[in-house]
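Researcher: I'm comparing several assemblies side by side, and this is the next one on my list. It has 606 residues spread over two chains. Same procedure as the others: predict the full complex and return the structure.
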Amino acid sequence: MGNLLLDPNFRWVLAGSLLLGASSGAIGAFCLLRKRSLMGDVLAHAALPGVGAAFLLTGSKEPLPLLAGAAVSGIAGTWCVDFITRHSRVKEETALGLVLSVFFGIGVVLLTWIQRRGFAGQSGLDSFLFGQSAAMVRQDVVTIAVVSAVLVAAVALLYKELKLLCFDPAFGAGLGLPMRFVDGVLTALIVLAVVIGLQAAGVVLTAALLVTPAVAARYWTRRLPVMLVLSGLFGAASGAAGTVASAVGPRLPTGPLIVLAATALFLVSLVAAPERGLLARGWRRWRLRRKAARPDLGSRGGQGGAR
Amino acid sequence: MDSYSATIVATGAVVAGACGFVGNFLVLRRMALLGDAISHSVLLGVVLAFLITGDRGIGPMFAGAAVFGLLTAVMVQALGRGGVAEDAAVGVTFTAFFALGVVLLTLYAGRVHLDLEHVLYGEIAYVPWDTIEVGGISLGPRALWTMGAVFLLNLAAVGLFYKEFKICSFDPEMAAALGIPVAFFHYVLMALVSLTTVAAFESVGAVLAVAMLIAPGATAYLLTHRLGWMLGLSVVCGAASAVLGYGMAAWLDVSISGAMAAAAGLLFALALLFSPSQGVVVKRLRRRRVGLRKEDVLQ
């Protein structure tokens, strides 16, 4: 472990996964409250055509243009979901599924088009989608750090507006706040979180980091600020645990290990959280049953009511 | 059309038919993303089935996939009862199963010989070469047979329990009041979805499987108000996407599965804009015509 921390490459990967987990966790809390938990999954798939198109346009594999392409096609995907649900009777879930599969299909078409035409330096474009956290270098970490900082700052600055958006958008609109704009900002934040997650960790991991820590955090608290911090912490802890486990254990891919770490935190929360956890619920039910089974309780209560 | 193209288009159409039948109910019951989730979680079932039985045959694989597909549905329901929003429950469950599947696959990669690429991204282009032979006589592509069987199974299930599926999708409370076991039919549907998804993505790839599960049903949903018509139309839309997608792929020399998924999206976009009863453009034109008449009246 000590030797591991001396390895500069490992330190970059660790820092990257920590930051990624923290920012995704915080954004994920809002996704959960907005009932948009699968948005991350959809956006992660919808980013593929953007990656292909960006490569075709610029001819380079520099992360920045590819990330920009991914962001643009992610935003196009959310626009499509919005358009479909607003202008037809197709429901949001169906629209999300449609955008996910069709955009991904278009992306596969674009990537095969690029591959079969033998563009120079195209190899590895597809690994963009499946993530390569172990191969993160300093520049990637810098990108992730900057974007994560932007995300956290945006959440802090727009905390009140986002809170209103999640709990009572009509009241927010009544206060004169531009709620549709705030919703758009939240979508943009989700897109950013997905885009940095994709490069580091792949589609499924990105989806998981936006859902699992938030759901786990929700078990522990009813208060939004606590939930935000907890969700961020859970995300960061999963990122760190997954990275360390993949470095010390047998050669295993980092992404899935981070997901499993997050799942473990979720399971602990599911069982052990006060009030909402399974243990607390079982205990409450058991006490209630014992109370109800006590024969004198009912009659005494009844007399009290009569007097 | 040569036999290679005919085989591929036929396989695509059968996949579309099989997925369309169950996909319609996913669309109606607002569970479209469950198809995507199940298509990921079955990976764990496939890997576990192989590790336990050591058999790479189709039987254990389907059994494992069906078990984990159902388990996903059960977990989502259980978490939902515990107060987790349904989409969040879907997200937590399938990512966990998929990650565990990938880790097991990597751990035992040497023994498994299951190429992740192949399991998840089977490509329809290879279908014609993977044939079944009985007594030295080729019976045609394996994928066509498995998908055909799944198609018949779905057709039989939906045909036999048409009324039950219909009431459960549109009015579960009434179904329960009539004494129909709603939960049972929910899990029957989930089992069918799991089987269909794993059969489809093993033969043609996950991209196409998920697209065919959702897009044709959604397109048909825009074209009709009657369930019977919707089922029929979705199969037609799916088959049309297969033909159109193959044409596009052959013309541009790109992935056939991807092109078929894109074609399914294109058909949906056309229905969204030009559906006679509810298309965006049609509605706008109608409104404009009505608006003009109003002005005429005012003058």
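Model: For your comparison table: The beta strands of chain B are 131-134, 137-141.
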